[in-house]
Amino acid sequence: MQDHRSRSQRATTSESHPQNPGAQSALGSTAPFEAVAETVFRRYGRSWKPGTAAVNRSYLRNQITPWFNQRPIAGIAHEDVQLWFSSLRSTPAAANRALPVLSVIMRQAEIYGYRPENSNPCSGIRRYRCPSRERFLTLPEVRRLGGALADLEASSPRAAAAIRLLLLTGCRQGEIRTLQWSDYRAGHLFLRDSKAGPRMVWLSSPARRVLARVPRRDRWVFPAPRRPGPIGSDALHRYWRALREMADLRDVRLHDLRHSYASIALQQGETIPTIGRLLGHRDPVTTLRYTHFADASARKAVEAVGTVLGV
How far is the C-alpha of 156 from the C-alpha of 160, rounded, in Å? Predict the structure, then answer.
């Protein structure tokens, strides 16, 4: 009877997880964490974009694996994850980004048969509250940046053009870096693989003038100087670091140009839904971070009207 029960259990496990015939039952699995994590990255990671996969791999390597290495994944409990998360309190932003990566690994471990169902030990872990890193350029700072761009244009015209487009479109740096000439049609950019999927970007006259000055010598609008393909992220960030020193904007990140585009548009009277469309936000809630600019504009308008109508 015992042998029959064992054979039945093994058969049930095999039928439940045909994609992973080597997995033991979830309750008895001794598979080490790092081996299961690699399985998840190899199989589930196919659904990630290359940039996302690289970032997630970095968190796995630097924040997650050193703590859980060689531990049986079935034995990792909520208390273990809480201890790990607490150990990262000195780098709260990295901890907050590493937590969902670990959660995906644990969730897929259930699906692959390495852990019991509904046992994700990351559930209920509260993320750290981090101060906002968003930085918005003021109009005087935009003018300083424009002067520095004019200087950079003399030595690195393509890099200057790429950074100008980031400021003039609110696009993500990857969307501009990997832009191809076939993506530019009828005065618009047709992005084939943005973060939220394919989308169209409206271009202002200044943005179209920037593109008109870029030579068409490659399929890429901003090709890498010494290898096939578009300019790399590291290279563009090197230009940006030099540029922000010239403009005395040392605390401004390249991504802050996107925030600045949105904030200036709001100050010029554009609505939150319109800004969301311009930035390509899939979720309208994402755009709500800029509402404090709309509130500030409303307060300014109220004061202006009150001054005129005051009796």
Answer: 6
Question: Among 253, 280, 310, which residue's Cα sits nearest to residue 198?
Answer: 280
By C-alpha distance, which of 43, 34, 102 is closest to 70? 34
Which two tokens mark 310?
């005051």
Place of tokens 């003021």: 138
> pTM for the complete prediction?
0.60
For residue 278, give Cα distances in angstroms to 119, 196, 265, 271, 274. Answer: 41, 12, 10, 11, 6
Q: Which domains, ranges and CATH numbers included, belong to the chain? A: 11-111 (1.10.150), 139-306 (1.10.443.10)
Assign 3-class secondary structure to the chain.
CHHHHHHHHHHHHHHHCCCCCCCCCHHHCCCEHHHHHHHHHHHHHHHCCHHHHHHHHHHHHHHHHHHHCCCEHHHCCHHHHHHHHHHCCCCHHHHHHHHHHHHHHHHHHHHCCCCCCCCCCCCCCCCCCCCCCCCCCCHHHHHHHHHHHHHHHHHCHHHHHHHHHHHHHCCCHHHHHCCEHHHEECCEEEECCCCCCCEEEECCHHHHHHHHCCCCCCCECCECCCCCCECCHHHHHHHHHHHHHHCCCCCCCCCHHHHHHHHHHHHCCCCHHHHHHHHCCCCHHHHHHHHHHHHHHHHHHHHHHHHHHCC
Exposed, middle or buried by CB within 10 Å (0-12, 13-18, 19+), for 159? buried
pLDDT tens, residue by residue, 281-298:
666 555 556 555 545 554
Q: Is the dihedral of CA 126, 127, 130, 136 positive or negative?
A: negative
Q: Which residue has the tokens 């390597």?
A: 61
Q: Can you read off the two tokens belonging to residue 294?
A: 């709309």
The model's pLDDT over 154-180, given as tens digits with 9 standing for 90+, comes to 999 999 999 999 999 988 898 999 999
User: Could you tell me how far CA 41 lies from the centroid of its own chain?
Assistant: 18
